[in-house]
Amino acid sequence: xxxxxxxxxxxxxxxxxxxxxxxxxxxxxxxxxxxxxxxxxxxxxxxxxxxxxxxxxxxxxxxxxxxxxxxxxxxxxxxxxxxxxxxxxxxxxxxxxxxxxxxxxxxxxxxxxxxxxxxxxxxxxxxxxxxxxxxxxxxxxxxxxxxxxxxxxxxxxxxxxxxxxxxxxxxxxxxxxxxxxxxxxxxxxxxxxxxxxxxxxxxxxxxxxxxxxxxxxxxxxxxxxxxxxxxxxxxxxxxxxxxxxxxxxxxxxxxxxxxxxxxxxxxxxxxxxxxxxxxxxxxxxxxxxxxxxxxxxxxxxxxxxxxxxxxxxxxxxxxxxxxxxxxxxxxxxxxxxxxx
Length: 340
What we know:
By secondary structure, the protein is an alpha/beta fold. The chain is built from 10 helices and 13 strands. Helix 6 packs antiparallel against helix 7 (274-296).
C-alpha cells in the first residue's frame, strides 16, 4: 500500500464528515424554522415562504404576506379574534389590509369586524379633507376591506337583528357565477364562485404565484362534506366544486416524489394536495351514486340508511356523534337528489 495514498484519504474523509455534520446542523435549523408556531390554542403552519395557515380559530385562516401587508382569507370565529390577531402579530409586524371570505358560516366570518378594525384600508381614506376613494362603507371607514360573494353579505345582514356587526360585513361583494380577479401583494388572486356546493355562498380563493388554493368548507377533512340544504347547498354542486379544486391544482408530476405541487387549504383539517382532493371527491361521488341508485329502486330514506351507503368510508369520515354525523350526510344527499 502506498503510504501517501493512505495519508491522503484521511483529510478527505474528515472533510466529508465535517460537511455532513454541517448539513445535518443546517437541516436541523431548517426543521426548527418550519415547526408550527403554537400559542393560546392557535397553531400557525408555514405553507409557503409568505403564506401561513392558522388552525384552531374555528375555520382555517390563511395569512398571505407581501409589500401591501397582510391579506387574510377568512377570519375565524368571533370569540377567537384576539388570539388570531396575536398569532398574526407573531408572524409579522405589518398590518392587515384585506380580508376575503370563502363563505358565510360563523367560523369563517365571525372575526371580520375585529380583524378589519385592527387593519387599514388599501384605499386612501381622509374624510376630513374630503379626499377618500369611495364611500365610508367602501373604505370600511379606514379599516381593512372585506370581499365576499353577495350571498355572504345577504346572510350576514339578514333579519331584524343582524347576526353579525355591520363593521364585519363585506365592503365589496361580487355577484354571479364568475371569477373575480385582483392583484394583492404582488400575487394574482382569483376568486371562483361555486354555486350550490356546501351552500350558495362558497368562494374558492387561488393565489396564483404562491400556488395555494383556499377551499373553505367545500373541503372538510374532519368528516363528509356538509351540505347546507337550508342555505342552498346541493350534493351535485359540492362535487362540481371539488372538481374545480382538482382542475386548479397541479400535481407533483412527473417527479412524484418531489415536494413541488399546488397546496390546497381546506376549511377544516390539514393542508392537502391534488391527490388528497381526488380521493375525497371520489369518496363523495361513490356515495352519491350509491344513494341515487337506491332512490331509483324506490327505496325510502330509512331503507337507504339501513343499507349503509357510506360503507367503506364511514370509519374515516362518518362519525355517529357531533355537529355533522353520518346520518346527517346521508339525509342531506337523499334530500338533495330528491328535491323538486
